[in-house]
Specification:
The complex is a heterodimer of chains A (767) and B (196). Chain A has 767 residues and is α/β, with parallel strands linked by helices. Helices cover 32% and strands 16% of the residues of chain A. Chain A folds into four domains: 151 residues, no CATH class; 167 residues, Rossmann fold (3-Layer(aba) Sandwich), CATH 3.40.50.740; 175 residues, Dimethylsulfoxide Reductase, domain 2 (3-Layer(aba) Sandwich); 149 residues, Barwin-like endoglucanases, CATH 2.40.40. In chain A, β2 and β3 form a beta hairpin. Classes of the chains: A alpha/beta (767), B alpha+beta (196). At the A-B interface, β3, α8, α9, β11 and α27 of A face α1, β2, β3, α4 and α5 of B.
Chain lengths: 767, 196
């Protein structure tokens, strides 16, 4: 019965107004598209609602369009208007809907019952979570024990980073950790780790260990440029890699190379280029801190013959490539994880980069660009919190944390899975299980992963399709591309929206999305937590929610506004000078200072020789017949967000150990045999694939498989759910692969500080 | 909606294909293809001996042949060839007898495990009829797939086919396939993919 004061007439009137408004808004959402961005329903043939947003399966920043049928996300395609990916996206991006609609998502905050790792949970409310966490954080303040709060982040988020700064947390940043050898090398030479390789305009591309056709920070945008350069412009791509990577398979030439010896090949190429006087001597003289004479003396011992002895790449090949690299300009040398994930990784990258500097490949078409950096997320720069002040926060990797007995009060893992993806993960998870070492373990993720199984508190994170975010990408013409990420999952129906607070705020005219279940965006989580940490921290977060944060950030750019971003998904232009642009390359090229430090001053904490040198890996010497160097690689379907994706797992559910056919024959191993792979960290039983696509001294294993948590799809188990496909999982017998991290040893590059993931020597035994 | 003056064709430029499987997965999402069956997939074939070795990627979809055997053999006339060249299966007529699967030289048909009827790639005709490109064509990250009308000399696909040498798979079967390839390695057509 309606109450008296709410008359029938008034009810009808309000109802009609809101319905009309809603109808108009839904219409507005689906119209402003050109024909290339349209999609139709396969069954009803009606146009689907299209919302542009940004993919986050990898860091490339491709623009995508999410298509909704009614309120359900049914497809993700590329955004043809987007300047980064021009409409193409990869398989992982398309499979993003598996992540958003996954019936096995973690949807509610839960607390452990019983002992650690038992897997028994009880649901708690978010309010209890905030009370618990804020009490723990506040407990650390009186004795200034801030750094005992350890955060392990797999994804960067501006509001989370701000919160971590504010509370003085120690941070393990996965993204920085992954590239730290390469970044340190570039930092030592061009004072920034952010470079853009303009491969689309090069005539010759020397690729040392990069695999942009399968896995790269600039993944498909770079692959598109390479394909365009090769097929349409006749450029040549030459790849050095221990295995035939996806990029090597589509290169003009592939040279298998002894693992970790790329530096000497690069130095020998430089040696010939200098010898034959093909260098850009003007550039060396004016823009670097070394002279041609000094360089010639330094390169004298690195002859092609010496390089052949170490690397196995023929001296004649090195000479040929050197002449081509020196004469077919613009030519460029690119680097990737294949050479930087070694104990000499930083020097490898320095040596390969030397090839670019002697050719004067800086800020030149077809060469290396050093784009301006921006700290866009600090648009409303606030002074640090007074009680805590500025603290040292980046602390390497989890193994170091446990080895150095860093005292931990709370380990907070956000989108990171150290119990699974950490070298020697078995001992890491043993440490995480130990309540003396880790008194309180909190995991925030989209799935109940291996680390979450050990946690005291698990929190459901929203996927990248369920929240608001902004990302900035530099371009070679010194502009930026600003990408908007907006929610596209769980569009509330009108009836649901009426029950929401949106009704009171008069926001019914807008479409309202809410993450699935009780999942929360990390930004909103950080904001809510900050509100409970006292005035001093709360004042740094003057935003109601992530949406308001994004709105305010966009307002800092005059020419851009949120409506453009919401409609187009991106904005391209120049940032105003007030946003503290740092132009490393630009500033220095205007002055008289040198811009490339070929010879770097030795730092106290990271001793390395000033000139780029080849430092041989002694652990790889004198291997016996059944010892091989293990290369772990990422398939193009690998991404953290695809672990439980049915379409991805259907294609990529088994990882066999690649072994050279002749090397296997000597050990009497044939294709499909089971072998035992042993390293000092552990052992794995695995099936081999004998192939000609790998160096005889290396074996290769794909990462991203062998989950024993996350979900049934990841585990390769058939089950019934709301998704009609899950009972059809057919790869139950072949299993779900193995996790190579189990046998990867804990090594790091002493100069770069990053992992040496590709240096583990394994013994292979036939079983 | 079909247009008699049109003759649709698809072209895979294997010089640009990087074997990324995007076409396989976007097809699953576009056409609601269940697990265990595919309308589009990528075959990877290794040839040669170390170090002189190559890997070839071969994306495969239905050829939508000009003389489709599958349509001829269908006992219930469920297979239909449209005037614009798209071959499709009427789901209301199909009885799932698998004659078409047995007759197809390319093995592109499958029985849908849920509906128990034959299905295959039909170049996303629901998109084509709405004036859009098939899902794999718009999504291919390197632009290796083209689709269009061969009767229109202005269309990109007609121009590319006019300028480049193109192959079809198994021309000897006499089906006149309308899916063309640039840079096709003939041996990888018959080769069987190894487990990886």
């Amino acid at each position: 019965m309606l109450k008296k004061r709410y008359s029938r007439r008034r009810f009808m009137k309000t109802g009609i107004t809101w319905t009309a408004g809603l109808a108009a808004s839904r219409h507005a959402l689906s119209t402003p598209l050109d024909n290339r961005q349209r999609a139709v329903s396969r069954t009803s043939l009606k146009s689907l609602t299209a919302i542009p947003t940004t993919c986050k399966q990898c860091p490339a920043g491709c623009g995508v369009i999410a298509y909704l049928n009614g309120n359900r996300l049914i497809q993700i395609l590329g955004n043809p208007a987007h300047p980064i990916n021009h409409g193409g996206i990869c398989a992982k991006g398309v499979a993003g809907i598996n992540l958003a609609n996954d019936p096995e998502r973690l949807l509610y905050p839960m607390k452990r019952v019983g002992s650690r790792g038992d897997g028994a949970w009880t649901r708690v409310t978010w309010d209890e979570v905030y009370v618990l966490l804020s009490q723990r954080i506040r407990g650390l303040i009186p004795n200034r024990r801030f750094n005992e709060w350890l955060t392990d982040t797999g994804e960067d988020d501006p509001l989370l980073n701000r919160l971590l700064d504010a509370i003085g947390s120690s941070v393990i940043n996965r993204h920085r950790l992954k590239n730290s050898n390469r970044n340190a090398a570039l930092q030592s030479m061009v004072q920034t780790s952010q470079i853009l390789e303009d491969v689309g305009h090069s005539r010759l591309i020397l690729n040392f260990g990069a695999n942009p056709y399968a896995n790269h920070d600039r993944f498909f945008p770079m692959a598109q440029q390479l394909v365009d350069a090769r097929v349409n412009k006749g450029a040549r791509l030459i790849t050095f890699d221990v295995r035939m990577s996806e990029t090597a398979a589509q290169s003009d030439e592939w040279y298998p190379i002894q693992a970790g010896t790329d530096a000497i090949v690069a130095l020998a190429i430089a040696h010939i280029i200098v010898e034959k006087n093909l260098v850009n001597s003007g550039f060396i003289q004016q823009k670097t801190n070394t002279s041609l004479g000094q360089l010639r003396r330094h390169l004298t011992p690195y002859t092609p013959e010496a390089a052949e002895r170490e690397s196995g790449v023929k001296a004649t090949v090195i000479e040929k490539l050197a002449v081509e690299f020196g004469s077919q300009t613009p030519s460029v040398a690119i680097t990737g994880g294949g050479i930087s994930d070694h104990e000499n990784g930083m020097q490898n990258v320095r040596c390969v980069s030397l090839l670019n500097w002697i050719m004067g490949n800086l800020e030149k078409k077809g060469g290396i660009f050093v784009p301006p950096l921006t700290e866009f997320h600090h648009f409303d720069r606030q002074p640090p919190s007074e009680t805590i002040g500025a603290t040292e926060k980046n602390i390497g990797n989890p193994s170091q944390v446990f080895d150095q007995k860093h005292k931990i009060d709370t380990y907070f893992a956000y989108m990171a899975n150290p119990a699974y993806s950490e070298p020697d993960n078995v001992s890491v998870s043993r440490n995480l299980r130990d309540e003396n070492k880790v008194p309180f373990l909190v995991v925030m993720d989209t799935h109940l992963n291996e680390t979450a199984q050990l946690a005291d508190l698990v929190l459901p994170a929203a996927s990248y399709l369920e929240g608001w975010d902004l990302e900035v990408f530099p371009t070679i013409d010194r502009k930026i591309i600003l990408n908007l990420r907006q929610p596209v999952v769980s569009l509330l129906s009108s009836a649901q929206a009426l029950r929401m607070t949106a009704f009171e705020e008069g926001k019914l005219l807008e479409d309202i999305f809410r993450p699935r279940g009780e999942a929360k965006e990390i930004g909103n989580f950080s904001l809510e937590l900050s509100r409970r940490l006292g005035e001093d921290i709360k004042r740094l977060f003057p935003y109601k929610n992530t949406r308001e944060f994004v709105t305010k950030a966009v307002e800092a750019i005059e020419e851009c506004d949120l409506e453009i971003l919401k409609r187009e998904g991106f904005w391209s232009g120049r940032l105003p000078a007030s946003l503290d642009l740092i132009h490393p390359g630009m500033e220095r090229s205007q002055g008289t200072k040198q811009i490339v430090s070929i010879s770097s001053p030795t730092e106290e904490n990271r001793p390395f020789p000033p000139m780029p040198v080849y430092s041989p890996l002694n652990t790889h010497k004198d291997l016996s017949g059944n010892e091989f160097i293990l290369t772990m690689y990422k398939s193009n379907l690998w991404a953290k967000g695809t672990a439980n994706s049915k379409w991805v797992r259907e294609i990529f559910h088994e990882n066999r150990l690649w072994i050279n056919r002749e090397a296997a024959a000597k050990l009497n191993i044939s294709n499909g045999d089971m072998v035992r792979v042993v390293s000092s960290a552990g052992a794995l039983h695995i099936r081999v694939i004998t192939t000609g696509r790998i160096h005889p001294r290396s074996v290769a294993l794909a990462e991203g498989l062998g989950h024993d948590a996350v979900g049934n799809v990841a585990k390769g188990k058939r089950f019934k759910s709301s998704d009609l496909d899950t009972p059809l999982i057919w790869w139950t017998r072949s299993g779900n692969g193995v996790n190579p991290y189990t046998i990867i040893e804990r090594r790091k590059d002493p100069c770069g500080g990053g992992y040496a993931l590709k240096d583990t020597v394994v013994r292979i035994e036939k079983t | 909606m079909s247009n008699k003056s049109k003759k649709y064709a698809m072209l895979f430029d294997l010089r640009k294909c990087i074997g990324c499987n995007t076409c396989s997965i976007v097809c699953k999402s576009e056409n609601d293809v269940p697990l265990s069956v595919w309308r589009a997939w990528v075959k990877k074939i290794e040839k040669g001996h170390y170090p002189h070795v190559r890997e070839f990627s071969l994306p495969i979809v239905c050829n939508n042949c000009e003389d489709p055997i599958c349509v001829t053999v269908c006992p219930v006339n469920a297979g239909i060839k449209r005037p614009d060249g798209i071959v499709y299966i009427d789901p209301h007529r199909c009885i799932g007898c698998r004659y078409c699967m047995a007759s197809c030289p390319y093995g592109v048909r499958y029985i849908n495990p849920r509906k128990k009827i034959a299905e295959k790639c039909y170049w996303c005709h629901h998109r084509v009829d709405a004036g859009l490109m098939p899902a794999c064509v718009v999504t291919c990250p390197t632009g290796a797939i083209l689709f269009g009308d061969l009767n229109d000399p202005e269309s990109e696909i007609a121009q590319v086919i006019a300028k480049n040498a193109v192959h079809v798979i198994k021309p000897e079967m006499g089906t006149s396939p309308q899916t063309y390839y640039i840079g096709l390695d003939i041996e990888s057509v018959e080769a069987v993919e190894e487990e990886k």
